[in-house]
Every structure is written in C-alpha cells, then in structure tokens.
Design brief:
The structure is a homodimer. Chain A is an alpha/beta fold. Chain A has two domains: 303 residues, TIM Barrel; 48 residues, no CATH class. The first copy, chain A, is built from 20 helices and ten strands. In chain A, the strands form two sheets. The first copy, chain A, has an eight-stranded parallel beta barrel, surrounded by seven helices. A two-stranded antiparallel ribbon of chain A has the order 1-2. Chain A is globular, with a radius of gyration of 23 Å. Chain A starts with a helix and ends in a 7-residue tail after the last helix. Chains A and B meet through α6, α9, α14, α15 and α16 of A and α6, α9, α14, α15 and α16 of B.
C-alpha cells in the first residue's frame, strides 16, 4: 500500500495524522488531498528516520535545497555540511543531485544526515556509471537506468526526479520552434543526447510502467522533471515547454491509476506576467498535482543574485498555486556550485517568497506569525522580535552589530519628545526617536 | 514655468527631450505624460549638474536610495560614500533624510555628489533646529517649517517629501480602528506628536497653498508622504491608510491646478494579495500620479533580509503600476542604519524587482536586455554574459571565485559526450557537462 492507495481506501495513515498536526488542519483534509493527488507525502517505505512532510494544496509552501557531488574536487563532507546548513535554515526537503564521485555513498549519507524527505535524479548516476562501465554515457542501456532507479529507491529515497515526458517529439519542437536557448536542463541534455545518438525514444516514456512498478513497490513519489525547462524568459510558455507539460499530464493520470504519488517539476525562467498562467496551466493539465518550481527567476540578467530573482518568482508562483519551491542560489548562471553561505542564503530567500505566498493564500498559521512579530515590534520587545524572525541568527547578528547611534540621537528632545506624546496619545509602548 | 506648465502649454523642454532619448520613446509621449501628471521630472530650477530623469507611466521603473545623517556618530563622508555606492549600483535618485548633525552641509554636498535627482524631507531639519533654537521639536512653529522648506528648495533639491495628508482626522481613525501598529513613519510620528501637543491641525495641510507656492517657484516636485504607512501586513489597506490616501488625492488635484509636479509615496508593508489593489486605488484616487513605494515588504518576519522581501513587493507593485521604488535594506527593522554594503545590496535588489516588472509591462528596452544576455549564455560567451549582468562587478567576482570543478567534471565523457551530440543536433555552440 502507498500513501495514495491508503488514502483512496479511506485510511488515515500515521504520516497523514502527523502532517495534519504540524499544519494545524484536520487529518481528513490531508487524506482527501492525498486521495485526490493534490497532496503528496514523499515517504519511501525503506526510509529510516524520516519526519513526514506533506506537499500540496492547503499546506504550507515547502522549500527544497539541492546539493551533490559535482566534479573531481567535490567532497561528501562539504555536501553533507550543506545539507545541515540548508535544513537548519529551514529547508523542508533536500535533493542529492550528485553526478560524480561515490554517488552511492553520498546518497546513503544524505539519507542518514537529515530527517527531511530526500530526492535524487537517477539518470545522473546511470550516465556516470555508463561512462566507467561502458566507456561513455551514450552507451548506457535502458536496463542500466532502471537498475539505478531501483537501487536508489531501495536505499530509501523519498522522491525521484525523472524526465518521463522529454520525448523525441518534444525535442524536435524545441528545435523547429527556434527557442532562444533550446536546452538548459542538465539531465534533459544528457537524456536527449543519448536519444539522438542511439536513435531511440526516451525509455522513461516508453517504459513508464517499469517506473511506476518501482515507485509503487517502495512508495517513492515521482517528481516529473521538465527537460524543456525554459532557460530564458523569452522561451517561457513556448511550444516545447507546453508540449512536454501536456505529456506530463498524461503521466500524472497513469501514475495515479497505479497508486503512485506524483508531483511535477516546473520552470525555470518565467517573466512575472507568465507565472500565473504557467501555474494555472500545470494545475489544469496535471489535474492538480503538486507543482515543484525551480525559482522561477523572473529575469535573465540577475547573475550573482538569482536567489533574489528566484524569491520574487517563487513568491508569485506559490501564491498562484505552486506548493514546493526549489531554491536558486547566487551561484546559478555563474558556472559554479553554491558554497555553504550561498546555500543558506538561497534557502532563506526561497522561504521569504514561500511565506509571503502563504500569507496571501491564507495558509493556516502564516498570518499569525507576522502578527506576533508585529505586536512585539509595537511593544519594542526586541527579544521577541529577534526570536520570531524568519532567521533569528541573522537578525540577532545584525542587531548586535548596530552601533549606539540610535540611542544617542534621542538626546535631541529631552523630555519634550514628540514620540512620547504620540505614544501616550495612542496608548502604546513609549517610543523614542 | 514648471515642467508641468510647459507641458500644458504644449512645449517640449530640453529635459523632456533628453528623457525621451534615454527611454527610447518619443518626446511628445513624455510631454503628454507630464501634462497629464502621470510623469514627473524632478528638476529644481536652482539645481546644478542634474541629469534629468523621468518617473511615471511608460518609463523604466526607477529606484531611489535613502541616506542621511542619523545620530551623533554619523559622518557626512560616510553618507556621501553611500550615495556614490548607490548611484554606482544603479540608483536613479537619492534621498538625503538627515535628522541630525550639519543638515545644511550634508544637503549641499549631496546635491554636488550626484547628478541624479535629490530629494529631502524638510520636517526632519525643522524639528532638529527647533530642538536647538526653541528647546524642543514640539516648539517648532509652522513658519519654522516653511522656512526650512523654502531653504531646501532654494538649495536646488529636486523633490520634497511632505506629510500633507496626515490630518487629525486621519490619526484619530488610526487610533479608533485599532491598528496593530498605529504609527511607524518617523516624520509622521514627529508631526503628529507636534499636532497633538499643540492642539493644532497639520500646517502642511492647512497651509498647503504655501507649499504649492514654494514648489512652483523652484519647480520642486512634491512627494506626498504617507504618515499612515502600514507598519505590518495586518494593517494594510485599513481605514487610516485609505483615509489619508483619499486626502492625498485632493492634494494631487490642487498641485496640478497650481502647475506643481507631484507624486505620491506609498507603503510599506503589503501582503502579496493587497499590492495590486493598493496600486490601483492610488492610481484612481490620485489621478494617475506617479507612485513612489517603499518596498513594499510582503511579510513582517524577514528581519535582516528586507531587501529581499522588498524586492518581491517592489516587483509586483511596479508591475501593477508603481513607477519609483524606494529601496529597503537589510538594516530595516533591526533598529540600525544601513552600511555601505547593505546600501549596495538594497539598490541591486530593488533594481531586480524593477526590471522584472519592466519586462512584464513591456517597457522599451527591457526584454532586449534579457535577450542579449541569454543569447550570450547560449553562445557560452562568458565575457558578454558578465558585461550584460545587472551587476557586472558582482557577477565577475563570483565567476572568478569559481574553482576548476566544472571543467574537470567533463573528463567523464571524453569524445562520447551527450552534450556535444545535443549541441550538434540543435546547431548551437558546443556544450560540455
């Protein structure tokens, strides 16, 4: 039984109960959401030490942070430190996107290092192994890929990113439609390179039933990746992206019929005026499946600051209905991987966007948090303000750096202080200049 | 003649011509916008060395940075350095909000330090001087205030922030409606304290004709400040804020009748789902007058990161029609004044929001910038990418910090590289892993 089949059978699982309590809603609301496929609970049956998290309609918007081994100098310890920092900063789940090194070890250690759901992208390991075993990623076989999918699932990975909808038809459309930047997805590029070289359709599409079988066996949640993720705002909502999304809608339907939990990954680069349409389209084509957006960044020119352009896009996307935001770091578009500081800033920026959306959506508990902090602000209660800040460490650090200036400024008025007059008039805590 | 009276007379001034060229639009479009009051050109007749900037409908969204002397330890040199950093980072105008020290000297040096429009808030100087001259800010006279307004205008300040709509009726409404945080505007608080103490209506309201006379004489643009700026998202669009905005609409009408250019300052703290309504309301009540928003921040809890929560709000506000964004820095809500680094980051964050909005609004030149950068990205032309970045310095710095990892990662494939296959298939620059 998967969470989905339990929900369809009318059963409220322990995970559903736990999530309902955390979110402050009724367990039945969670069960119903899972049954309808508008909530997923990435919780592999083999996973140990997981604290269940729900992603979907009516729940707090979640944030995902990606780490992983990349390049010869990468170190498992550094990537594990990034996981620790990301989770400490409030990441709700983590993706291990290792493409090189000891990918098996990294994954096992990632799963042990956090109690959040962990996701992976099996294609990366499959091509890395094909390079060693067969001399080239292009010589990977479909069975190689499925073997890695099963291996990762058996290890307890909670959600798997798979490019099931990146078909030959889709990539031909990207070529014929004259995209500005035809292909920016790393996994998508490798998969398509393989397809072109081997003149073979995407095995994740043609053998989707094998994907579903593995997913059902372990109750791994599928995260349908978008090989046609637009890589610049000018390519947003073009034929290739929408064609693939139509196919992903078909995959969602089939997964649900198989009792498999599923969510859909999204862009990428989206101008402000396309975000609502993008989310609405995904919700319609994918029958309300949770939408896992990468950012989106709202302009192409913010190199070095894409945690900010991503926070803007994430806020609007989540407000429009996206439920999981993949952070974007300042290292994006610079050709490097994020360091620990950038990981931390990326998580916080995404959380600001997510929380702003939760306020606007009326998610349970969101407005109350702001209200408590604002009451502390009114009362000039600094201790409470700092404790209630989204990132108390940072707020406290900035507050402690502050010089004596403001208290000195108040010497101006003495006992005839306008602020005091106002405070008395309004009946609030006495203010100073 | 002011820019407004020139425009109404059908004349295209040198400033209008210059702005039209910078924005890539027709001079007649600028003239018409100024005539209708939907564009302002803050350009004091006494100002020297100004490069004119237009703010309003159809023009690029502008960003303003605030600096100023605050407290005994403040230094003119440090504040001037902040102006230099802000303008270097792309600020379109600067406000000198000095409240202490040698305010006259700071203003004169600010005007000399930049060729952008400069704004001030005369009340700050008037109360500081009353404290010295009369023993208390509460003993300031209306004539004291008008004397400072005229002095600052005569120095060449291009726009003046004035709380003309903060009437006794408005503040009583803030009290009776039970705002969470009744008053967060510094100038507004001092003004209201003065009004309560002296049992006198706001002189900027009762003697608004004197304001208009000075503004017309120097062609100073008025920036109507909102004493009732909501200080938390829960107070957004409450009776006090909207009551004041109704009065500001009346002030806009009277200014235009007097040939005085005018814009309106806005919040503050606004949840995502109030931003569009807030801007629409301002546009309706204030007859399309340019809207100068402070952020807005979209949540109260992002202490230490309000440049990011402000960038989110600024993007949506500008997209909804606001034309000038006052930056918010990471020092906001921490009880300190921003340092040089925070000034720089604040300007950049606001610019990201502003540009994202310009893309969505279809402002001339906005989409082209992203397109050029994305083409460079597609061509793997790093030099062009870095030059085209919003902040080339930062992009270059991050790029140079990057380790050798990515080039090494590519050792995996050798000549059988999927990326190469894809690149050839798509006919694009050859990619590597």
């Amino acid at each position: 039984m998967t969470q989905l089949s339990e929900a369809l059978a009318g059963n409220i699982t322990a995970a559903m109960k736990f999530i309902a309590e955390k979110e402050g809603i009724e367990p039945e609301q969670v069960r119903q959401g899972v049954a309808e496929g508008v909530i997923v609970i990435p919780a592999n049956k083999q996973r140990k030490g997981l604290i269940p998290t729900g992603i979907g309609t009516g729940l707090r918007t979640k944030v995902s942070a990606s780490v992983g081994l990349y390049g010869a100098r990468a170190s498992i310890d550094v990537e594990l430190e990034k996981i620790e920092v990301a989770v400490d900063a409030g990441a709700d789940c983590v993706m291990d996107l290792s493409v090189s090194g000891d990918i098996d070890a990294m994954r096992k250690k990632s799963l042990a290092a956090t109690s959040t759901p962990v996701g992976t992208l099996p294609l990366y390991q499959a091509i890395a192994e094909a390079a060693v075993k067969r001399g080239s990623p292009l010589k990977m076989t479909a069975d190689d890929l499925f073997e890695v999918i099963e291996r990762q699932a058996a290890d307890g990975v909670d959600f798997l990113a798979l490019h099931c909808g990146t078909t030959m038809g889709v990539i031909q459309r990207a070529k014929s439609e004259g995209r500005i930047d035809p292909l920016v997805s790393y996994g998508g590029s490798h998969l398509i390179g393989w397809m072109i070289h081997n003149r073979e359709e995407n095995p994740l599409y043609t053998q989707y039933d094998r994907v579903l079988e593995i997913a059902r066996k372990y109750d791994v949640t599928l995260s349908l990746a978008d090989g046609m993720r637009p890589g610049c705002v000018a390519d947003s909502l073009d034929g290739a992206q929408v064609h693939e999304l139509v196919i992903l809608g078909e995959m969602v339907r089939r997964a649900r019929e198989a009792g498999v939990q599923i969510m859909v990954k999204g862009p990428g680069h989206v101008p402000l005026n396309h975000i609502d349409a993008t989310v609405t389209l995904q919700k319609s084509l994918c029958r309300g499946a949770p939408y896992f957006v990468f950012g989106p960044v709202v302009t192409d020119i913010a190199s070095g600051y894409d945690h900010i352009s991503g926070a803007i896009g994430g806020a609007i996307a989540a407000w429009a209905g996206a439920e999981l935001i993949c952070y974007v770091t300042a290292a994006e578009h610079i050709g490097s991987i994020p360091d620990v500081t950038q990981v931390r800033e990326g998580v916080i920026a995404a959380r600001i966007g997510a929380h702003a959306a939760d306020l606007a959506k009326g998610i349970n508990g969101a407005a109350d948090w702001d209200l408590r902090l604002s009451r502390a602000r009114k009362e000039l209660d600094w201790e409470a303000q700092l404790n209630l800040a989204l990132d108390p460490k940072r707020a406290r650090e900035l507050r402690s750096r502050r010089s004596e200036e403001s208290s000195e400024a108040c010497a101006m008025c003495g006992k005839y202080c306008a602020m005091k007059v106002v405070s008395q008039y309004l009946g609030i805590a006495e203010r100073t200049c």
